[in-house]
Amino acid sequence: MQRCVYYEDMRNKESLADRMELAVKVYDHVLQSAGSFEEEDIGADLAYLMGAILKSGYVEFDDDRRILEVLAYLEGNGDRVFPPEHVLWTFIEIMTFKVCDSCGARCCTAETVFYAHGDLSYCEMCWDSRLEVTR
Ligand SMILES: [Zn+2]
After folding, report:
1. Contact in structure between 52 and 59 (CB atoms under 8 Å)
2. How many Cα atoms occupy the beta-carbon half-sphere of 38 within 13 Å?
3. Beta-strand runs (E) in the chain
4. What is the 115 CA–ligand 1 centroid distance (Å)?
5. pLDDT tens string 44-74
6. Ligand 1 centre and the CA of 135: distance in Å?
């Protein structure tokens, strides 16, 4: 799992008071925007995120998690509450997934290397076995 040292530095620069303030802001925003904490595990994801903020850690979210959509919501004036440069994003690692065109497996791109061949992309396993067949 690759960790961004730059983000770690940024997180560690935040004082406990700053992190508590951030946690409250995130909590209020998600509560107002999500409708219910019981939908699509948003409450569980929020709990993980609260823990990450308060303990200066980070949480891994799949890129299709509902909480990421809620955190990207706009304010009334059209600005993002948490723009991409906001310190909040140093507490979140977004996991992107790709689907192998051969076996159909959905793999995290941070953990699996994908190989492109024309318009197709193959997971490491399929790529390796493909080479063996060709040999
Ligand atoms: Zn595959």
Report:
1. yes
2. 0
3. 59-62, 92-95, 97-99, 106-108, 114-117, 120-123
4. 10
5. 999 999 999 999 999 999 988 999 999 988 7
6. 18
